[in-house]
Write a structure and sequence with these properties.
386 residues, mainly beta, 4 domains, 5-stranded mixed beta sheet, elongated, disordered N terminus
Length: 386
């Protein structure tokens, strides 16, 4: 005759509490589950019985049972560490609740108000009213106009295609936060350029500060260089892609001088120095207002000296009064991260230049000191379209 028994020992830290009993000479088998309960089976016979023959107590009858081993939202017991697997993980799915009611749906309490999302992260509300439903029953009213939409935002889930880079296109998707998420720019031609850009080269030019040039077409491809050398253009086209730049060279000559501008726009004054100068027109071909940074930098092998910049509206100033009524500037220094040398001027940051859609502004460019002559680079970088 075989005699079976079960030892159940409750473990708390380093202490153990004996719940069952033991007899000398009995053979035992043990199963550790977690770090909380130790169950020991023993047999009085000479043959060992499988541990599976020992059934755990039914918790519904008040006994002590084995913890569940199947995984759940609280995690399963790891038999090696005695810890609960995935402990501390939170449920990632959140119930968004029932959808907002439609106008005319029945409601239960007069003057209750509900809201629903609309447009670009806006909200609109409806109210529970008597008589709004059939036979005068309580029902939800029409929703109010959409209010509080995100300025410049989009409607979540919508998709659009736009131009990018140099004659490329990309798709974009509106996120749940009402902001566009851009895809990859595709379709740009090999060796592409920014439409309206001009490349200057002194190659083959025997006269100082003259250049051959080639222009970038509307298909973002370079044309051929001109066969003759000439002075650099005195106009720049704003790029069509944010972050892109176009440039020209400005040549300061002692034969063209004026009183140097100083102070702050729009009430600038004149210094005592008479310096060379040049005016360059900047045209915005885009259908929206462009915000640009305008700055000087060194031409290949050219001089480095302090320069001055100021911007004007659509009319080139021709009198002292008009020159003093500048819009941005007068800039005399810069962030070298932009220009390469802080002696060069830049209309940047709070002095950025706004150009209306399809509009033109004029840029005054001059050296700070009268004896400074030669060519400097004048660049227009598109920072924002709005």
């Amino acid at each position: 005759m075989r005699v079976h028994c079960i030892f159940i020992i409750s473990l708390r830290g380093e202490n153990a509490m004996l719940v069952g009993c033991a007899m000398r000479g009995w053979k035992t088998k043990a199963l550790v589950v977690g770090s909380l309960v130790l169950v020991v089976a023993c047999s009085a016979g000479g043959d060992e019985d499988p541990i599976a023959d020992v059934a755990p107590a039914d918790p519904s009858e008040g006994g002590v049972g084995l913890p569940p081993t199947s995984s759940s939202s609280s995690g399963a017991v790891d038999p090696d560490s005695g810890k609960i697997a995935d402990a501390g993980k939170k449920e990632t799915s959140v119930d968004a609740g029932p959808p907002p009611p439609d106008p005319g749906d029945p409601c239960t309490k007069v003057d209750d108000i509900v809201e629903r999302k609309c447009g670009a992260c806006g909200k609109q509300s409806a109210i529970c009213q008597q008589g709004a439903g059939e036979a005068g029953a309580l029902a939800w009213s029409q929703y109010s106009a959409c209010a509080g939409e995100l300025a410049g935002g989009c409607v979540p889930g919508t998709m659009a295609t736009e131009t990018c880079g140099n004659c490329g296109t990309r798709s974009k998707t509106c996120t749940q936060y009402c902001a566009w998420q851009n895809g990859v720019c595709n379709g740009q031609p090999a060796n592409s350029c920014t439409p309206g850009a001009v490349e200057l080269s002194p190659a083959g030019c025997t006269t100082a500060n003259t250049f051959i040039k080639r222009s970038c077409s509307t298909t973002c491809s370079w044309g051929n260089f001109t066969p003759t050398c000439a002075a650099p253009p005195t106009s720049i086209e704003v790029p069509t892609s944010t972050g892109s730049s176009n440039f020209t060279y400005v040549v300061f000559q002692s034969s063209q001088t004026v009183k140097r501008l100083k102070g702050d726009c729009p009430s600038a004054t004149f210094g005592t120095n008479i310096t060379p100068y040049e005016y360059v027109s900047v045209h915005n071909p885009n259908a929206t207002k462009a915000t640009v940074t305008v700055f000087n930098s060194q031409t290949p092998g050219g001089p480095v000296f302090q320069t001055v910049l100021a911007s004007y509206g659509a009319t080139k100033p021709t009198t002292d009064v008009a020159r003093q009524a500048c819009v941005q500037g007068v800039a005399e220094f810069s962030d070298p991260a932009t220009t390469g040398d802080d002696n060069f001027a830049a209309l940047e940051d709070f002095q950025q230049v706004d150009i209306p859609a399809n509009g033109t502004v004029w840029i005054y460019n001059a050296p700070y000191l009268p004896g400074s002559t030669g060519a400097v680079k004048l660049t227009v970088r598109l920072d924002k379209l709005q």
